[in-house]
Amino acid sequence: MSETTLESALRAAAVELQQAGIEGAETDARRLMAHVLGTDAAGLILRLKEPLTPALLADFDKVVKERLERKPVSHITGQREFWNRSFAVGPAVLDPRPETEILVEKALEQPFKRVLDLGTGSGCILLTLLAEREGATGMGVDISPEALDYAVQNRAAMGLEKRAIFAQSDWFERVAGQFDLVVANPPYIPLGDMPALAPEVLRWEPMHALTPGPTGLEAYQIIAAGLAPFLSPSARLLLECGATQARDVSAIFAAAGFVPVALHADMDGRERVVELRNDAKG
């Protein structure tokens, strides 16, 4: 009986995942194998011809079965890449997505000193901004203590304990101080759209971080109504939203007295980030 090599195990897993209707099956198989071996993509390539020990093969079979149950790869490995950094993630937080990097990119285009991140989840937005902007400080709040466990873990891994504060808070309940930059990726999926989500999202990500209610706009209405006392003059706001919501979100904040600045599109041309100011200055 011939030995099972990494290459042959990868090939078999990719076929199994593909037959189950999982997109990117080959990439997923490689990421799972790298996780089992404790290596990266480059290290995996160098070892493709090596035999896979029975223990490692059993470990690989286990994570492949998890993926077949549509568990996200990031939840299996416990890590997700965002802005060229690795963040701890799991079922209590949303996976960082490419659209959110647009928000970070736009935030970094102008100076800021103090950031408020509403619904911080894993902390990926706040911590990335602080890591990229030396001397800036910030606060991240989330209603979920389990989500904040990930944020605190990521803060420690990035050495930002002295610059980032996290607090369990129902939106503004425990927010204190004033901020010149506010960022948020709130729940925005209309409740009626939830059944159409991919199994990886619907089965494994926290519902409270996905949908705020029937319209998908409820969180923006709460933020717009309560934000003003926490803003410095000319503070900037950057809000992620659904692919068809940007103009509605902008209108909600304009009605609350905020000044629309721009709607920023993703790689597919969909307006996904709303930028506003506290007033017309700056």
CATH topology of the largest domain: Rossmann fold
- In round numbers, the mean pLDDT is 95
The CATH C-level class name of the largest domain: Alpha Beta
Under CATH, the homologous superfamily of the largest domain reads Vaccinia Virus protein VP39
Overall 3D form: elongated
**Secondary-structure element pattern, one letter each:** HHHHHEEHEHEHEEHHEHEE
Number of strands: 9
Report low-confidence residues grouped into runs of 5 or more: none
| Termini separation | 73 Å
> How much strand content do the residues show?
15-25%
Query: What summary fits the major beta sheet?
Result: 7 strands, mixed
Helix content: 25-40%
Do you know the CATH architecture of the largest domain?
3-Layer(aba) Sandwich
Number of domains: 2
Enumerate the strands of the largest sheet in spatial order, edge to edge or round the barrel.
5-4-3-6-7-9-8
Features:
282 residues, 2 domains, seven-stranded mixed beta sheet, two-stranded antiparallel sheet, 11 helices, 19% strand, elongated
List the helices and strands and how they pair.
Blueprint: H1 6-19, H2 25-37, H3 41-46, H4 54-68, H5 73-77, E1 79-82, E2 85-88, H6 98-107, E3 114-118, H7 124-132, E4 137-142, H8 145-158, E5 164-168, E6 179-184, H9 199-202, H10 218-226, E7 231-240, H11 246-255, E8 259-265, E9 271-277
Parallel strand pairs: 3-4, 3-6, 4-5, 6-7
Antiparallel strand pairs: 1-2, 7-9, 8-9
Helix pairs in contact: 1-2, 1-4, 2-4
Task: Summarize, please.
With 282 residues, the chain is of the alpha/beta class. The protein is 39% helix and 19% strand.
